[in-house]
């Protein structure tokens, strides 16, 4: 079965739901592991979409004549 493609926003919303559930509910180990696995998968989707967006922004900056590439700063 093919997985439905989710948007960045959908993935983030679901990740927030998973985190809240894991922080506030007492879960069976099996359920916690399933949620963790789903969270990892959604996190990978978000990373891919962010990398694609960063590449697009870089390309647009080059096309606009803004040749200086400045890497995005990571938050601490």
UniProtKB/TrEMBL annotation:
Residues 5-32 form a coiled coil. The keyword Hydrolase applies. Gene3D superfamilies: Exonuclease VII, small subunit. Its EC number is 3.1.11.6. Keywords: Coiled coil, Cytoplasm, Exonuclease, Hydrolase, Nuclease. One of its GO terms (molecular function) is exodeoxyribonuclease VII activity. It is found in: Cytoplasm. It comes from the Bacteria. Pfam families: Exonuc_VII_S. Signal peptide: none annotated. It catalyses: Exonucleolytic cleavage in either 5'- to 3'- or 3'- to 5'-direction to yield nucleoside 5'-phosphates. InterPro entries: Exonuc_VII_S, Exonuc_VII_ssu_sf. Bidirectionally degrades single-stranded DNA into large acid-insoluble oligonucleotides, which are then degraded further into small acid-soluble oligonucleotides. Belongs to the XseB family. Heterooligomer composed of large and small subunits. PANTHER family: EXODEOXYRIBONUCLEASE 7 SMALL SUBUNIT. This is Exodeoxyribonuclease 7 small subunit. It comes from Anaerotignum lactatifermentans.
């Amino acid at each position: 079965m093919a997985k439905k493609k989710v948007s960045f926003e959908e993935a983030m919303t679901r990740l927030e739901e998973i985190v809240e559930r894991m922080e506030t509910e007492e879960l069976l180990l099996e359920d916690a592991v399933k949620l963790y696995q789903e969270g990892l998968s959604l996190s990978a989707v978000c990373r891919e979409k962010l990398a694609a967006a960063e590449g697009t922004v870089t390309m647009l900056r080059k096309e606009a004549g803004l040749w200086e590439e400045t890497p995005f700063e990571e938050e601490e």
